[in-house]
Design a protein that fits this description.
The protein is of the alpha/beta class and 273 residues long. It has one domain (6-272). 52% of the residues lie in helices and 14% in strands. The strands form two sheets. Strands 4-3-8-7-5-6 form a six-stranded parallel β-sheet, sandwiched between helices. Strands 1-2 form a two-stranded antiparallel sheet. α1 (19-38) packs across α5 (106-120), α2 (54-60) packs across α12 and α11 runs antiparallel to α12 (239-272). It starts with 5 loop residues before the first strand and ends with a helix.
């Protein structure tokens, strides 16, 4: 879905927004959903927000990007807002003279949105994460016991299985915002497949953001994040689990970036002639 206010990353419309603008847009959607519910209507189907990093792109885009992608790529292309949760994506946009203003990470957006919901009387539901992680995260955010928490569900979720009971629990909680913390690609597939039945104004895939908020997983220092080297910090923390994923991701993203750059040059050359 091409949009004038976005950077097209293999057809994924990465929104040209700052952190403050992304937060304001999500809160606006949440308020609109609340107004619909107060008028006796459903708050959903929700606006979909995806926070895309290199791992998302590697999982979604085939090695030959001109080939048809799978369901995950369709999920990202159809999202209402996609943010650049990774400095390599921001850097690529600038190299291609189509700059994104800044990185908008899910691990920054999630706590800001939780606090804003508490301040504005909006309610959120968290699907995913463990009870211990969520309890620590809510305590650090200062929202433990707040009416802003519509509910949580830490049960194992299979996107291919019937979701009737889970969707009924979410609807009964009447959230304005639904955080889906199942990890990529499960969370994006779950949202897409159940979109018409989610009674919330906004649904966001936030991966392990609550792990960071809880303090159980340490984020890199700000200067490391700004330099685009947070992935190095993550590998140092969990080398056995992450080194292969990041190595393959680096090679594939570099190849895809080269394909994208060559494609842009080719198109511009044809336009000029």
């Amino acid at each position: 879905m091409e949009r004038a206010d976005s950077f097209s990353l293999f057809g994924i419309p990465v929104s040209r927004v700052t952190n403050a603008e992304a937060l304001a847009r999500i809160l606006g959607w949440a308020r609109e959903g609340r107004a619909r519910r107060e008028a006796g209507l459903s708050a959903g189907p929700p606006k979909v927000v995806a926070t895309v990093n290199v791992d998302f792109v590697v999982n979604a885009v085939p090695w030959r990007p001109w080939r048809r992608g799978g369901e995950l790529l369709d999920c990202l292309r159809g999202a209402d807002m996609v943010t650049a949760d990774g400095m390599p994506i921001v850097a690529l946009s600038r190299i291609l003279f189509d700059p994104l203003p800044e990185r908008v990470a899910g691990s920054d957006l999630t706590p800001a949105l939780c606090r804003a919901c508490a301040a504005e009387g909006l309610r959120f539901f968290v699907l995913g994460g463990t009870p211990e992680v969520l309890a620590d995260a809510f305590a650090r955010l200062g929202v433990s016991g707040s009416p802003a928490i519509a509910g949580t569900d830490s049960s194992r979720v299979d996107p291919d299985a019937p979701q009737d009971a889970l969707l009924a629990r979410i609807s009964a909680a009447r959230p304005d915002v639904l955080f889906v913390a199942l990890g990529n690609p499960k969370q994006e597939l779950w949202i897409r497949r159940n979109l018409a039945r989610i009674d919330a104004a906004v649904a966001l895939g936030v991966g392990g953001s609550f792990n960071f908020v809880s303090g159980r997983v340490r984020r890199a220092p700000r200067w490391v994040q700004r330099c685009g080297l947070e992935w190095v910090h993550r590998i140092v923390q969990e080398p056995g689990r992450l080194w292969r994923r990041y190595a393959v991701g680096f090679v594939k993203f570099s190849w895809l970036s080269a394909c994208l750059a060559c494609g842009r040059v080719f198109v511009r050359g044809r336009v000029k002639t």
